[in-house]
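Title: Prediction job returns without error message
Component: structure pipeline
Severity: low
Priority: P3
Assignee: unassigned

Description:
Job completed but the reporter wants confirmation the result is attached to the right record. Sequence as submitted:
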Amino acid sequence: MTKIDLITGFLGSGKTTFLLKYAKYLMRQGLKIGILEYDYGAINVDMLLLNQLRGDRCELEMVAAACDEDCLKRRFRTKLISMAMSGYDRVIVEPSGVFDMDLFFDTLRDEPLENWYEIGSVITIVNANLRDELSEEEDFYLASQASGAGCILLSRVQLSTPEKIARTKAHIREAAREIHAGDLKGNFLAKDWEAFTDEDMAFLTDCGYHVSDYRKVVAGARSDYTSLCFLDLKEDLEGMKQKIQALFASERFGHVVRVKGFVCDKAGGCQINATRYEMLVDPIAIGQGVLIVIGTKLNAEQIRTFMTES
């Protein structure tokens, strides 16, 4: 049977950054892997970032999730059937941060998938500097994903403090109790990812998972989250950073939760990952500017006008 892993986490937690490390580790062990990405944007920014992994030992697949819940389940199931025929040693699923865990577990209990796949590790990524105040929907996704994890892996530990990490763990535990998921069974791992050893990665490949019952606050297609995609934006990096900050600051655009993508200017290409509370910019070789705006109650007309005006 093919082992299948799920790497999940709420918007901006660092899933794709971890996935790059995880996939490279598996390939160093001689495994052939398949990565299944799905997101709600018209363009999957994470797929562009993961293209560097393509090769004899790694293939990338994508499911477009901009459809109703039943359609998404059919697409997900069909893609997993196809990937089961490809001879992978391990399949890794990275969904949107707005993700209902039941989609993963229920689909893999269906025939013929239950005969072809064995669940390996469910890893939930959480920012070590988690905000104290989250909406009910944000807490639901955080808690439901953590409740199914074999390991709750904290990101940005090197930018946090022991006190903040303790508050983050307490927040996750309390959010799980709020949706009646009970006490979390997964282990916490709080370590700078740059200091990971092969022993750390081996633990993550075998950390397992937990099936948890919880109260559904929101699920699947009923989520209020939507996204807008922009291609070939001409703004330079500094101008784009100012526009992104304005998106978060003004209520006229709706509630913007995350902005991610790539900016290309004369100085080169950069990857941008931004939330209301932080903006990370890293150099990257990319030939096209792409930006995704994610949030709730987005004013699409206002955002499009603002992002495309010079």
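Comment from assignee: result matches the submitted record. The first strand starts at residue 2 and ends at 8.
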